[in-house]
Amino acid sequence: GSFFRLCERDVSSSLRLTRNTDLKRGNGLCTKPQESPKAPSDSYSHRVPLHKPTEWERKILVWSGRFKKEEEIPEAVSFEMLDTAKNKIRIKVSYLMIALTLAGCVVMIAEGKKAIKRQESLTSVNLEKKAHLREEAATKAKAE
């Protein structure tokens, strides 16, 4: 019993100390009051690092639609602008590859249908090649 009384005294004295240091108590927890954000000082200026684009990066900036001509591109651009342009180009290239794959599939389907109309199949083509090779082997054997 006396132990709990001592703990209560310590807790109550520590609460008095925290009240004096402007700590707010909410939901059983002590939290510091929110401080107002400090205004940026004049001596510190936040600058985005810039990058001088290469010729290839200049073409990417034009192809992505960021600039109309290479002459409009400034001497230095931000990395964020360059990354955005590269991502746009990646998306365009992936769409192009999807379109080419679909076009190739359509062409192969059309060629397959034409081959069926000619009564042509892989099996018949392979049998013809083997028969031709046998004939050549037989003529070489007779010639020797």
TrEMBL record:
Its main location: membrane. Belongs to the UPF0389 family. Residues 26-48 are annotated as: Disordered. Keywords: Membrane, Transmembrane, Transmembrane helix. This is Protein FAM162A. It is found in: Membrane. GO terms for biological process: cellular response to hypoxia; neuron apoptotic process; positive regulation of apoptotic process; positive regulation of release of cytochrome c from mitochondria. Proposed to be involved in regulation of apoptosis; the exact mechanism may differ between cell types/tissues. May be involved in hypoxia-induced cell death of transformed cells implicating cytochrome C release and caspase activation (such as CASP9) and inducing mitochondrial permeability transition. May be involved in hypoxia-induced cell death of neuronal cells probably by promoting release of AIFM1 from mitochondria to cytoplasm and its translocation to the nucleus; however, the involvement of caspases has been reported conflictingly. It comes from Loxodonta africana (African elephant). Pfam families: DUF1075. One of its GO terms (cellular component) is membrane. It is a single-pass membrane protein. The chain crosses the membrane at residues 93-110. InterPro entries: DUF1075. Interacts with HSP90AB1; HSP90AB1 is essential for FAM162A mitochondrial localization and pro-apoptotic activity. Interacts with VDAC2; the interaction is probably involved in inducing mitochondrial permeability transition.
